Amino acid sequence: MQAIQDVAGRDIAGRDIAGLTDQIVADCGLDTASVFFVEDCGEQARLSYIHHHGVTDQAQHIYAAGGVFKADPFARTSGRRAEFIRWGDPRIDALAEDAGDYRTFLAQHAIDVVGALSLRVTSRLSLVIGTHCTRRGVGKAGVPIGLLEHRLHGLADMVVDKLLDDLFDQPFGQMALHAVLPC
Q1: pLDDT tens-digit profile of 157-169?
Q2: Beta bridge partners of 118
Q3: DSSP summary character for residue 124
Q4: Do the strands 111-120 and 44-53 form a parallel or antiparallel pair, or are they unpaired?
Q5: Which end of the chain is more exposed for a tag (fewer CB within 10 A), N or C?
Q6: Distance in angstroms (rounded) separating the CA atoms of residues 127 and 164
Q7: What is the tens place of the pLDDT at every residue in 47-77?
Q8: How far apart (Å, rounded) are the C-alpha atoms in residues 70 and 178?
Q9: pTM for the full predicted model
Q10: What CA–CA distance (Å, rounded) separates 120 from 99?
Q11: Which helix H or strand E contains 127, and what residues bound it?
């Protein structure tokens, strides 16, 4: 894994997930970021939050309890390789167009989505790292997309490494996966 550095060139790969997420938000001019897992359990999908920066408790509750995450086009497009997709990318346009609950949620909370990194960790488990600006803030035009994408890949590696470390520290494989997810 390539070293992750802040804008001053200091190595930040050893930091924790929250610290790295907060640093990405600061370095890239974002207002909010969300790191979470979505587990597809057939009829019932589950959301497991890992860390948020700048996301209100109310927004977190509505996104989770209201099932908004089920309509999130980024959570529905994850592949076996970590991929950053910008809002407005043709690959998610159809999903975004059909995601009325998600678009309403964005409008109600004045969220301007920059994009998200999505990764299908297992056949039923996806990691999503969403990045946002608020419509009251400076906006997403000034976000350094190359730097953001690079940092999000490092963050995704860190999250998956932590998940696997926690999983393998437990005595039971697949059962331990459910035990380490903060649901």
Answers
A1: 999 988 888 777 7
A2: 83, 128
A3: S
A4: unpaired
A5: N
A6: 13
A7: 999 999 999 999 999 999 998 999 899 988 8
A8: 19
A9: 0.83
A10: 20
A11: strand 125-134
Alpha-carbon distance of 129 to 37, in angstroms, equals: 9
- The pair of structure tokens assigned to 174 is 């697949």
The rounded distance, in Å, linking the Cα atoms of 88 and 141 is: 13
Rounded to whole angstroms, how far apart are CA atoms 125 and 136?
34
Nearest-angstrom CA–CA distance, 84 and 82: 7
Burial class, 175, CB count within 10 angstroms (exposed 0-12 / middle 13-18 / buried 19+): exposed
Q: In this structure, what token pair is assigned to residue 136?
A: 């009251």
pLDDT tens across 7-60, in order? 455 444 445 899 999 999 999 999 999 999 999 877 788 899 999 999 999 999
Chain-centre distance of CA 132, in angstroms?
Answer: 10
Give yes or no for a contact between 127 and 164, defined as CB atoms under 8 angstroms apart.
Answer: no
Measured distance between the N- and C-terminal CA atoms of the chain, rounded to whole angstroms: 29
Contact by Cβ (8 Å): 1, 154: yes
For 147-174, letters b (16+ CB in 10 Å) and e give ebbbbbbbbbbbbeeebeeebeeeeeee
